[in-house]
């Protein structure tokens, strides 16, 4: 019983991030990540979820366009606002990167 309680407390303490990002699909590494602001409305609704985006990244590493692939519109807007300020490593050509941001209520 104590072991389960200790594991539960540890899990709660390690989970302080309101959003976690996970890039997949593309080969370019993110050099600058802006953590999305958890929306006030989402907090009032105790909303959790994932915002999935396809980002067109320019050769110099800036986000050019963002296509929404899924997620609650409240969370997607916060994800888009943050990802617009992300930077990726430079590459010889544009690439498409898939980004998933996981949101948890406070």
UniProtKB/TrEMBL annotation:
Please report the record's description of how this protein sits within the membrane. Answer: Single-pass membrane protein
Query: Sorted alphabetically, which InterPro entries does this protein's record hold?
Result: TonB/TolA_C, TonB_C
| UniProt cross-references to Pfam families, sorted A to Z | TonB_C (PF03544)
Give the source species.
Answer: Candidatus Sulfotelmatobacter kueseliae
Cellular component annotations (GO), alphabetically ordered: membrane
The region annotated as signal peptide is 1-19
Q: In the record, what lineage is assigned to the organism producing the protein?
A: Bacteria, Pseudomonadati, Acidobacteriota, Terriglobia, Terriglobales
Q: Where is the TonB C-terminal domain?
A: 23-106
Q: What does the UniProt entry say about where the protein is found?
A: Membrane
User: Which biological process terms from the Gene Ontology are attached to this UniProt entry?
Assistant: transmembrane transport
Query: What is the name of the protein in this document?
Result: Putative TonB-like protein
Presence of keyword Oxidoreductase = no
- Which keywords has UniProt assigned to this entry? Membrane, Signal, Transmembrane, Transmembrane helix
């Amino acid at each position: 019983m104590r072991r389960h309680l200790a594991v539960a407390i540890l899990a709660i303490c390690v989970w302080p991030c309101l959003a976690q990002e996970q890039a997949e699909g593309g080969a370019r590494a993110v050099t600058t990540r802006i953590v999305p602001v958890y929306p006030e409305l989402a907090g009032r609704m105790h909303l959790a979820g994932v915002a999935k985006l396809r980002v067109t990244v320019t050769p110099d590493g800036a986000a050019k366009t963002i296509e929404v692939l899924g997620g609650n519109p409240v969370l997607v807007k916060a994800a888009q606002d943050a990802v617009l300020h992300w930077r990726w490593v430079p590459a010889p050509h544009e690439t498409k990167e898939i980004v998933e941001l996981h949101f948890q209520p406070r």
